[in-house]
């Protein structure tokens, strides 16, 4: 039998739902509801993360065992544990949606390993009291995307939840991929997600909205004691410190998103981790053509609320909602306003530093802001692949700035006009002059730039290719991409084929350009 060092702090310290039936309902004065996963008909392990497993105290052999398969598929409940779904609300696309909760996620248990706390959660393991009209299941398509992206983001250095295992259930699940009335059956799947906790902004919002101060206090105190103990014992002063740190962590996460060109696609407050981790990989995507207005979410296509360039603002808006929830514990708006103002100021500072690092600038010059602004304006003049551009830029030579245009040519999706060429040449001249003020050698600069500008990211078309093969029972591309994305900053000459623009056939293909929230 696989051995886990069980330490269930969430379910043992917070109030549970008094109703034990697994029926859809409003759950009052409770942080979670006990519920068992649905039995999978014919589970099969598709892939597992050996690196993450080691952090959890598991061996490579454990991952191949029947015990592991049965636990990860939800067919077996680990001894002395009681799976549960969490209760939370949230603002969706700017509107209060009321109770949401874990509609298709079931927390198995928490473990303590090497002085770290981890929660193991199954996504797609069946309905819960929070499933509303859904079936609580997930399909292979979305599960592959979540599994690959969780681990890819970790290796990119972006704060994120992790993924331990990807399984097929042997069942068919009915889904309407594009919400256009064309439902079809797809292969069912489960992802085991791993995080210190899956508490979200929405966990606090639901109790504040219901004016349930008692449960709100219990949840906040638990969160501080368990995950922010360095802030001190819970008190009004500590609540403010807690909010301030959540602001800092959220900003750090979003700065990383902007650095690698990641667009979350659905930044609702129920998709915002209290630990500042990227959570809930639905209609995400990486920028291909550099475009502040791009969103990967078809549901967001009209208003583009969650577009790339608006992610920092949405982070701030979501933090306002968390502040409104925590206000009831402090009853003083000023410290929250101060923390939110700090977020705004720090974004400008940290964004500038991030862009300096992408351009290989060590020293700080006042003119850097203008140089970066002109770069972004020039990038927007034509469809220019963000990942390719910044990676290729590391080879730029100050001794031959005119060669810069030839250097970045592979990043253009189409031929550029002479007018745009002139703008690029002008920018490269300014960039060369700026670099001459630096003391790093070209080799040192290139190395530093390549440490923050990834060569390989999980483009949507790549994930779709893996999905297409997996639908036929061939999981080789899942494995290939998983290994590729473990070293996104390395050259990997054997994988050069993945260092390329999105193919033209993928421009408007479902799953390769925009995606819906459907899973």
From TrEMBL:
Residue numbers annotated as active site: 270 (proton acceptor)
UniProt keyword list: ATP-binding, Magnesium, Manganese, Metal-binding, Nucleotide-binding, Nucleotidyltransferase, Transferase
EC number, as in UniProt: 2.7.7.-, 2.7.7.108
Chemical reaction(s) catalysed: L-threonyl-[protein] + ATP = 3-O-(5'-adenylyl)-L-threonyl-[protein] + diphosphate; L-tyrosyl-[protein] + ATP = O-(5'-adenylyl)-L-tyrosyl-[protein] + diphosphate; L-histidyl-[protein] + UTP = N(tele)-(5'-uridylyl)-L-histidyl-[protein] + diphosphate; L-seryl-[protein] + ATP = 3-O-(5'-adenylyl)-L-seryl-[protein] + diphosphate
Keyword ATP-binding: yes
Binding sites annotated in the UniProt record for ATP: 101, 103-104, 123, 135-136, 193, 200, 280
Pfam families: SelO
Binding-site residues, Mg(2+): 271, 280
UniProt cross-references to InterPro entries, sorted A to Z: SelO
Highest taxon above the source species: Bacteria
Cofactor(s) this protein requires: Mg(2+); Mn(2+)
First-level EC class: transferase
Protein purpose: Nucleotidyltransferase involved in the post-translational modification of proteins. It can catalyze the addition of adenosine monophosphate (AMP) or uridine monophosphate (UMP) to a protein, resulting in modifications known as AMPylation and UMPylation.
Family assignment from sequence similarity: Belongs to the SELO family.
Protein's recorded name: Protein nucleotidyltransferase YdiU
Gene: ydiU
